[in-house]
Amino acid sequence: MPRSKSLLLLLLLFTGGLMPVLAHDPSPALAHSSSVEFNIQQTVELRAVFEGDRPMDNAQVTIYSPADPATPWQTGTTDEQGHFRFTPDQPGNWDVKVRQAGHGTLITIPIDTEGEAVTTVAEAGVATHSPLQKTMMAIATVWGFIGTALFFTRKPTDP
């Protein structure tokens, strides 16, 4: 068998062996997840960070009160360390949206009648790919390998 055909066959076997691994990866794909930590003092203090504890500096913050969850009650931006503070004026579930460059999260902070809340960390959903997306990525990868192999195995043309 000529060398170019052997190389192409080996490449196809290699990529065909990788396809089930790529298409059925059980581990979640991570893509710029974010989290917001908060604690209650006289005010609610938020700390918004990206994956790896990198602060979401100057991120847009929108606060929605329990009385009118459709209309922003307060808006602002985080500081350089990802901190933002607000003082709730009534008990209930306060929704807080923090976004920067298309990444962010929406959390609900429960405030009881005494103005206290449980300190917690709200994690944004981890990005995962559907089986169809994984299959399409695997097919695109295999197609790229085949195209590359065919490019390097072509016969040179005379000018």
Task: Walk me through the structure.
This protein is α+β, with helices and mostly antiparallel strands and 159 residues long. It is 28% helix and 32% strand. It contains two helices and eight strands. The protein has helices at 3-23, 131-153; strands at residues 34-40, 44-50, 60-64, 72-77, 83-86, 92-100, 103-111, 120-123. The strands form two sheets. A four-stranded antiparallel beta sheet has the order 5-2-1-8, with no helix packed on it. The chain has a four-stranded antiparallel beta sheet with strand order 4-3-6-7, with no helix packed on it. Strand 3 and strand 4 (72-77) form a beta hairpin. Helix 1 (3-23) runs antiparallel to helix 2. The two termini are 28 Å apart. 14% of the residues are buried. The model has no long low-confidence stretch (mean pLDDT 77).
